[in-house]
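Cont'd.
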Amino acid sequence: MNRIEKTFKKLRTQNKKAFIPYIMAGDPSLEKTKELVVLLEECGADIIELGVPFTDPLADGPTIQRAAERALKNGVTLRKVIALVKDLRVKTKVPLVLMTYYNPVFKYGEEKFINDAKDAGVDGVIIPDLPPDEAGELIKTAKKADLATIFLLAPTSTEDRIKKVATASKGFIYYVSMTGITGAQILLDDSIGKSINNIRRITDKPVAVGFGVSTPDEARAVSGVSDGVIVGSAIVRKIQEAPEGLRDFILKLREAVR
Amino acid sequence: MKKGYFGKYGGRFVPETLMPALMELEKAYLESKKDKDFQERLVHLQKTYIGRPTPLYFAQRFTEHLGGAKVYLKREDLAHTGAHKINNAIGQALLAKKIGKKRIIAETGAGQHGVATATGAALVGLECDVYMGTDDMKRQALNVFRMRLLGARVIEVPVGSRTLKDAINEALRDWTTNVRTTHYVLGTVFGPHPFPSMVRDFQSVIGKEAKKQIIQAEGRLPDYLVACVGGGSNAMGLFHEFLDDNVKMIGVEAGGKGIETGEHAARFAGGSIGVFQGCKTFLLQDDDGNVLGTHSVSAGLDYASIGPQHPYLRDAGRVQYTYATDAEALAAFELLSKTEGIIPALESAHAVAETIKLAPKLSGDKLIIVNLSGRGDKDVQHVAAIKGISL
Ligand SMILES: Cc1ncc(COP(=O)(O)O)c(C=O)c1O
């Protein structure tokens, strides 16, 4: 069993929810990213998502776009992010998931990417512009390497899509809270809970919710209807604008997800 | 061939949120092809609104000047709004209306597709927002004002390279957010399936007309077709109808300041296979898969990628691709203006530039059709500025 699956299994038996922070690797620097991962783990993150910068992040809003621009200026590449994970594995066992667009993976070579990522200690991958329909080979290779392939569902997903994504996903399913891009305002009506219930009718794989969760209150509400909460833009913004308040903010988010 | 693919190129690489919309679009588009009312409405608008068929014009003085093959111009510059872009925009506006969308959005580089989409929106009664890079808004200021006159909102894209690719990113983000009410009128044979096939089909009227017209004028098929290639829609529009014929085809990319300078948009001269903005195709990228900046004097060709059917046709040896530099395009812009009284769009001037090289190498009984994809009024200010003339 993969480390991500183990994490969710353990949380389930304890009746707890996963707190999954996202940071952009290399923003403000790769050295700093290492420290941040350790900090996030200390503060109780169950899984950590590491963003890989890309020139054209079409699923991301301005906050993560700008973080990617800063990371690219620092010369950060997929290769370097994989090397970073290798370094980190000396210090930490927290499950790490790479969130990357597909072209850097394609250019790297799918098989080589999966194997190198696995060897470095990466536990899973999220590729927002690679739906399962186009991921046949990647899923096969990842399965062999026991690397989790985490696919996305959205409010627009039909039953057919839910089935397809649920079958292709390993580790957890990433439910996008709204039709939109990262960093947009979440709408906390009962639609998220309803959608997740629909998904649960089809699969018992864990479902974590991301996009737009930016406050502890929102995190609390979302954790009430899901298996985990992903917080990205709000943390990235904190790192950039008010890093002194980061630990406190993370602890509050952690506390809210239960 | 796998659905939505041209050989190994194409596909549907988009966030999950958009997948259902693309499936719905594909279905609606396939139905519209068989829908007699839809087709009749389209043909009627092509005739009475766009002004089709556009003429196939024998450019006699230009031909004599070059001293070789006979050059015909397919006059897409005479279509309503001044470029071929309207063929696709009207088709998609009708389709958007049919599937019950309230709003259409578009990206634009040269502004021609933005103007065409704004026109389509006004024609069928839809809200319209157009994304355009800051740099393109400057060099195509006239078209920005035209779009506003037509009732569209022009949204400036100040990020990335501030050109076409960034406008597409923003349009895709908007579509992801508003997919339930909005249709994205992609302006070229690019992006996720079904756009490359659908846009090609809406543009294929160019080649269908040209085939009839050349047979009427010369009693035979042409020897060469020449078209500029940005995303590749005017080229596919002309080529498609001739793919099974014994006709040579040349696509002309933007050579910018020269391939060796790195400042160009010649995907086949400097690119490799990648996955970008919804499809697997050729792409100007670095070793880590990040997309490179591009340069062209013409905003409509200043783009890092190319529609997926083009690399397919190139691999098959069916279409040959070359490029023209900024300087060659500017010279062609002036030469066609002076010899024929036709000011071409800077995009189309790249096809004219290749013709200037090709025609003299051929004998006088050979026939070339050049796709004059648009008129150059929009570029006059920009060309004046390049020549250091203030208007
Ligand atoms: C007049 C004209 N020709 C050509 C192009 C390039 O697009 P495509 O390659 O899709 O025909 C444009 C794009 O803006 C254009 O305005």
